[in-house]
Design a protein that fits this description.
Layout (H helix, E strand, L loop, with lengths): L11 H11 L3 E2 L11 H10 L17 H15 L9 E5 H13 L5 E6 L5 H7 L3 E6 L1 E2 L7 E2 L3 E2 L2 H7 L4 E7 L11 H14 L2 E5 L25 E6 H4 L7 E5 L2 H14 L5 H15 L8 H22 L3 E4 L5 E5 L16 H13 L1 E2 L1 E2 L15 E5 L4 H12 L3
Parallel strand pairs: 1-14, 3-4, 3-8, 6-12, 8-9, 9-10
Antiparallel strand pairs: 2-11, 5-7, 10-11, 12-13, 13-16, 15-16
Bound molecules: 4'-deoxy-4'-aminopyridoxal-5'-phosphate (PMP) and glutamine (GLN).
The site of 4'-deoxy-4'-aminopyridoxal-5'-phosphate has 14 residues, from helix 4.
């Protein structure tokens, strides 16, 4: 194998998605909705594939189908409070993954350090390494609470620890808000602190905002690219899969200044060239529907979080009832729960794994419920300190909840 992929062969999704399928488990592990996407979104794809639209079955513009980049420039222009050029500030990629990959490959050089906040969406680490960079980790630290559920807001960075990670070799920091797996929504104040460090140290920011519409309890999704001095150094990542509940479409985008974007484009044109035209046409149509009702409660960007807040609360009740200690997420569609108080016999599982991994495997095999071990979202040095949590996904229909509840009730 090539040296740049040395040691990167294990992948949590490949392993646990297969295990969940093998045991036909109730799947609250991998993050995908098991309910239908909005009708207008699926209709748009049917329309884009219809005989009269035969031209959409051919290649389109490499860096993004013109209708889609135009819609994205209009939307993100509003959200960022600046005029965006559809053709130089937007890149359409294969999922949010594709945007992240282009950013790391296009902007990180051999020996560059990249700061990653833990827990983190697992692919950041191998992507930094494949680019020749060195990941530098800084954990969110939980503050214990009494008399109420812990919230993802009770997990925060130690400002001094964060400062200590910046040095001459630091090229970029990756942030993810709302965060996967914790559900933390970084506050304006927290982002301001990170932005100041980026500007002072001349560091880039890769801001993974794929769950940008999913914030609860009047929390605000704040975009780091809007802080002083940040637009010119930020690549913002979005995902149609998360925005419209169509994760199988694997369409995403980056928003960035032209000076950075041209390097992402170079990577994209040399590995993907262009994303599927019918999907891009359909997502453009889906955006035009939502753009016309952006402020209305019927807009999917408002109705989906309203629906998910109820599911989040139901999941927290269900996990508490089973004796776990959930951490209530402020955003996204995942919840982590502390399993320290659950007593199960894990002697049948291999001993060279972390406790949470053994627990998750046991739960799939013996109880038929799939979740994801949270140690998968930590660096090698920190896994041991965070190995008693599991992550569950709550963008699931009521029937799935009922099956999961029946399994969890068995614990008492
Ligand atoms: N970032 C985060 C935080 C995610 O949870 C995901 C979900 N897979 C992605 C990026 C990738 O998104 P996509 O499915 O559009 O590639
Ligand atoms: N983002 C989703 C999750 O965290 C899916 C991950 C994936 O497919 N790699 O579960």
């Amino acid at each position: 194998n090539a040296r740049r992929i040395e040691g990167l062969d294990k992948n949590i999704w490949v392993e646990f998605t297969q295990l969940a399928a093998d045991y036909k488990a109730v799947n609250m592990g991998q993050g995908f909705p098991d309910m239908p996407p909005p009708q207008h979104v699926t209709d748009a794809l049917v329309h884009a594939c219809s005989a009269e639209n035969y031209r959409f079955h051919q290649y389109t513009r490499s860096f993004g189908h013109p209708r889609l980049v135009t819609a994205l420039a209009e939307l993100y222009g509003k959200l960022h409070g600046r005029t965006l050029n559809a053709f130089t500030n937007i890149l359409v990629t294969v999922g949010g993954y594709g945007s992240l990959f282009c950013a790391f490959q296009g902007l990180i050089d051999l020996g560059d350090e990249v700061i990653i906040i833990e827990p983190y969406f697992d692919c950041y680490e191998p992507m930094v390494k494949m680019a020749g960079g060195i990941p530098v980790f800084v954990p969110l630290r939980p503050t214990p609470v009494k008399g109420r559920l812990q919230s993802s807001g009770d997990w925060s960075l130690d400002p001094e620890e964060l400062v200590s990670k910046f040095n001459k070799r630091t090229k970029a920091i990756v942030i993810n808000t709302p965060n996967n797996p914790l559900g933390k929504v970084f506050s304006r104040h927290e982002l301001e602190g990170i932005a100041e460090l980026c500007v002072q140290n001349d560091v880039l920011c890769f801001s993974d905002e794929v769950y940008e519409w999913l914030v609860y309890d009047n929390r605000e999704h704040v975009r780091i690219a809007t802080f002083p001095g940040m637009w010119e150094r930020t690549v913002t990542v979005g995902s149609a899969g998360k925005t419209f509940s169509v994760t199988g479409w694997k369409l995403g985008w980056s928003v960035a200044p032209e000076g950075l974007m041209k390097h992402l484009q170079t990577v994209h044109q040399n590995c993907i060239y262009n994303c599927p035209t019918p999907l891009q046409e359909a997502v453009a149509n889906a955006f035009s529907v939502e753009l016309s009702r952006l402020a209305s409660p019927s807009c999917y960007f408002s109705s989906l979080p309203n629906e998910l807040r109820v599911k989040r609360d139901r999941m927290a009740d269900m996990l508490s009832h089973a004796g776990m200690q959930p951490v209530l997420p402020e955003g996204g569609y995942f919840m982590i729960a502390d399993i320290s108080n659950i007593e199960v016999d894990l002697s049948g599982e291999k001993d060279d794994e972390f406790y949470d991994s053994k627990f998750v495997k046991w739960l799939i095999k013996n109880k038929g419920l799939a979740s994801i071990p949270v140690s998968a979202f930590y660096s090698a040095e920190n896994k041991k300190n965070f190995s008693k949590f599991i992550r569950l996904c709550f963008i699931k229909e009521d029937a799935t909840f009922e099956k999961a509840a029946a399994i969890l009730n068995d614990f008492k």
